[in-house]
TrEMBL record:
Pfam families documented for this protein: Glyco_trans_1_4, Glyco_transf_4
Keyword annotations from UniProtKB, A to Z: Glycosyltransferase, Transferase
Keyword Isomerase: no
Name of the protein in question: Glycosyltransferase
Domain of life: Bacteria
Species the sequence originates in: Pseudomonas vancouverensis
GO molecular function: glycosyltransferase activity
UniProt cross-references to CDD domains, sorted A to Z: GT4_GT28_WabH-like
Glycosyltransferase subfamily 4-like N-terminal domain boundaries: 14-169
Length: 370
């Protein structure tokens, strides 16, 4: 049994946080002693943690100020491997590991397209972390774990990181028995009482997710009965609702907020759409495939091309092209629902916890670089 540590800022409602909670459980299931440490603490995804995962919260007011406390924790609690996630947390973890003498055990991970994600948060501290990270990635003894080939390639092509500075591990998105599980009951009235076709999307209400393009695509559909549900929270709620009103589709668009069971909503829908401008490895897309629901995605960097096998599994359309998105949605919804069901399930199966956790164990416990 190996002692493993996962380091996060908290377990809020983001995709990376959700995957780290799932990874912690999968590592426990694989026979390891796992601790999940939060620099700040709390968040809705705490509910996803396997009860066998030990929890530690440093309760720091900010991630950056947690370095001394994290260094003390690492010095007094020796782990076989330490894994940090998200760029600003990676920088904190590298500093703490260097101070505690545990740098050889530390692994950091990138969950998104680095060249795009660094422009999202205007905070000076976050921007400084993105400036420092590539330099640190060249100096640390273990390669950066990336969630897709695209994320790894982006890091190498747009920073000073080298090919030998990166490796890849899959997200543990799905339970091993996902095929045997019956989808949960949807919560929204449009899905409970299906009177018209419904499109579902899931994600933060942020520019990255391209929901403005999706609403415009809805307005271009010839079938004026089609409705759109976007599950998620974020700062663009008001702007998206105002856009829907301008396009005269306000009565066909709702933003119900965060859902703890997105797969239940997607399974009851007629189509799932990923309209993102960039991603790392979109977990919602994998979850959608696992339900068998028809899927349409943008060909955004990075992730959808790998997951959808360059369009062989489901349509890929250009980013920010509302007309192409509308056409792809219309075609998918006009086809028999089960037409490409086997290929969707097969593509999703790559991201079962049992398979994905092995890619992490190789990355965490394999031979270190010389």
């Amino acid at each position: 049994m190996k002692r493993l540590l996962i380091i996060l800022h908290d377990l809020s409602a983001g995709g990376a946080e959700k995957m780290m909670a799932r990874l912690a459980g999968a590592l426990v299931e694989a026979g390891n002693d796992v601790t999940l440490l939060m620099l700040t603490g709390g968040g809705v995804n705490v509910a996803l943690l396997d009860p066998r995962v030990k929890q530690v919260a440093l309760n720091s007011p900010r991630s950056a100020s947690a370095v001394p406390a994290l260094a003390r924790f690492l010095r007094h609690n020796r782990f076989d491997a330490q894994l940090a996630a998200l760029t600003h947390v990676n920088v904190v973890a590298i500093a703490a590991a260097a101070l505690s003498g545990t740098l050889t055990r530390l692994h950091v991970s990138e969950r998104n397209a680095f060249s795009r994600d660094k422009h999202v948060n205007p905070s000076l501290r976050v921007r400084l972390a993105y400036w420092l990270a590539p330099l640190l990635y060249r100096l640390i003894p273990n390669p950066v774990i990336c969630v897709s080939r695209g994320v790894a390639r982006d890091l190498v092509e747009t920073t000073i990181a080298r090919d030998r500075d990166v490796t890849i591990a899959d997200n543990p998105v799905l339970d091993n028995d996902f095929l045997q599980r019956t989808p949960g009951r949807p919560t929204h009235p449009w899905l409970l009482d299906k009177r018209t076709p419904v499109i579902v999307a899931v994600g933060r209400l942020a520019a990255q997710k391209g929901f403005d393009t999706l609403i415009e695509a809805l307005a271009r559909l010839q079938d004026r009965r089609v409705r759109l549900l976007i599950f998620g929270e974020g700062g663009l709620r008001t702007e998206l609702l105002e856009q829907a009103a301008r396009l005269d589709v306000a009565g066909r668009v709702e933003l119900p907020g965060y859902t703890p069971d997105p797969m239940a909503q997607i399974a009851a829908a007629d189509c799932f759409v990923l309209s993102s401008r960039f991603e790392g490895s979109p977990n919602a897309l994998v979850e959608a495939l696992s339900t068998g629901t028809p899927v349409v995605s943008t060909r955004c960097p990075y992730g959808p091309q790998e997951i959808l096998e360059d369009g062989a599994v489901a349509p890929l359309v250009p980013v920010d092209d509302a007309e192409a998105l509308a056409q792809a949605i219309s075609i998918e919804m006009a086809q028999p629902r089960m037409r490409h069901y086997p290929s969707r399930i097969s593509a999703a199966a790559r991201y079962m916890s049992g398979r994905a956790v092995q890619t992490y164990l190789v990355a965490l416990l394999g031979e270190q670089r010389s």
